[in-house]
Queue: 2 jobs
Job 1
Amino acid sequence: SMGAAPVVYGQSDRPPRGDYSRAHSDYTCTQDYAAYTAQDHDTYHRLYERQSALLPGRASQEFIAALPSLGAKERIPRFEEVNERLFKATGWEIVGVPGLIPEVPFFSLLAQRKFPVTDWIRKPEEFEYIVEPDIFHDLFGHVPLLFNPVIADFIQAYGQGGLKAAELGACEMLSRLYWYTIEFGLIREGEKHGGGLRAYGAGILSSAGELEYSVRSPEPHRIPLELARTMRTLYKIDTYQQTYFVIDSMQQLLDLASVDLKPLYEELRQQPTIGAKELLPGETLLA
Ligand code: HBI
Ligand code: FE
């Protein structure tokens, strides 16, 4: 049925920008490909060109290797075309959405191996910065790593964990894990890839400024990812991150999915949150 539930997305007082009257009850909508203008395709092309030039030495090797699976960079991809390749690779598919959707429907799609992709693109005057995710963030930032079988399984497990967290009133804690991994995660790659710090989080990979800053700037803190620490850490949505959590392998993420979070949520509720740029006694920064 057309006409989804009202939009109640957390972190902003602005009404979301997309047209939610187009959405079905699960918040998905058909990509209206004919509605894209020549200017929209050009915006995608220019964003793609700029961002892909910055990837070597900054983005994870897995991401760089999978990027061509999105198809031609000169125009916005058709979701069906991406899905032909993606479904064969990992059993995932992308589904159109009008923009940010509430947590439970979001988790529910992920649990079904359906990744919601916003179907509209920013205006040319928003080239550098946009306050809500658009198709460039969702597609360029997130979809390449859905071709990686380990990340593919982790994101599905995250969706399943999210549905449980919603029942336990623990979405906020779990969302911090998503933020500091899938959105803003760094990985230390092995020697065969040049052995350095690389970005795998979509919020970084879709931002020209943060891609450089996150892996090279002396300013932010970088510390090894640890589940409880990450779930206690507050985050900023309107600045570059002040702390990044670093993994050693994609498998390390998937291993977190087998942890029983219920007792951990209960324990963490007793502990104070940690500020976005706070270091705990005894913690040391990664070089
Ligand atoms: N909706 N379309 C969309 N994309 C997101 O990344 C997203 C969302 N709704 C909720 C949400 N993210 C966050 O709350 C994720 O954890 C938890
Ligand atoms: Fe995102």
Note: The chain has one domain: 26-269.
Job 2
Amino acid sequence: MRLTAPAVLHALPARGRGIKPVAPILGDTEVGRAEVPNTVIVTREPPIAVIQLNRPDVLNALNEEVLADLVKALGELDDDDTVRCIVLTGSERAFAAGADIKENFIGATPVSMLEQDLTQRWEAIRRIKTPLIAAVSGYALGGGCELAMTCDIIVASETAKFGQPEINLGIIPGAGGTQRLTRAVGKWVANEIILTGRFVSAQEAKAIGLVAQVYPAATWLDDAKALARTIAEKPPIAARLATEAIDLAWNSTLDAGLEFERRSFYLLFATEDKKEGVDAFVNKRKPVFKGK
Ligand code: CAA
């Protein structure tokens, strides 16, 4: 779906409890286009797009509304062939400080939690086919850390602080933290992080394999967007199959993953992009991939 509102929406009032206009961390460019003036702000800069979580008063705590808006925005970008890589980010102070404790947890019961069926939203985020980069500055805690781990790549400002502090609320991570963090960093480190609820610095997150790159605080978002542009130049069908295969490495047996990889590899020989890539190599020119 194409969206046409101009990128001046930082100035528009945001909808929802106590929400102020977004802190203007995203540069409005000539080519940038934005929409959804509420809990998420979308800026299109083809061939990439940036989604910024926008609940600054509560450090981008994830309530029902922001998750619904996020799923909608991601779905629209995923359907747009001109968008080849998406950056998901927050503010300088917080990527997201977790589930909205005050809105979601006071008075919650097992039945009300069951009826919310959060799984559907997290599954929808997980199923996005366009490569998705989490660009984390400040806090990525609880559901915020889990949201980052749902993305294909995590990059961080040197200010980033990751953590799963649910234990301090008398609960445990509920959106994949015990599973994804453990697969990323191993049982012994995951237990130490989850049982203490401590914060993990950007540098430590990189050292333990949670974060791909740590960028300077002054340039983190530009650096994340540059990474997105690099990925956006790659053949999109190959990129999609690569991320699906890598997900299977987490989620299946080695044999099943190898089988998926083998079939995907063969399938890619039917694409125009494969012809383009090989021809460009042979003729010593830069390839131009069309996603066909
Ligand atoms: N939910 C609701 N509101 C939150 C919030 C959250 N997760 N995190 C921060 N806020 C609110 C604060 O209540 C505060 O609002 P008021 O100004 O109205 O009091 C505002 O954001 C700013 O926060 P602080 O004043 O606390 O800022 P700080 O710099 O002193 O501390 C912080 C920052 C360390 C991130 C601290 O806010 C904090 O510990 N937040 C909670 C983190 C957390 O426990 N996350 C896990 C949630 S559970 C979960 O996510 C379950 C799951 O698996 C899905």
Note: Residues 56 and 75 are 23 Å apart (CA to CA).
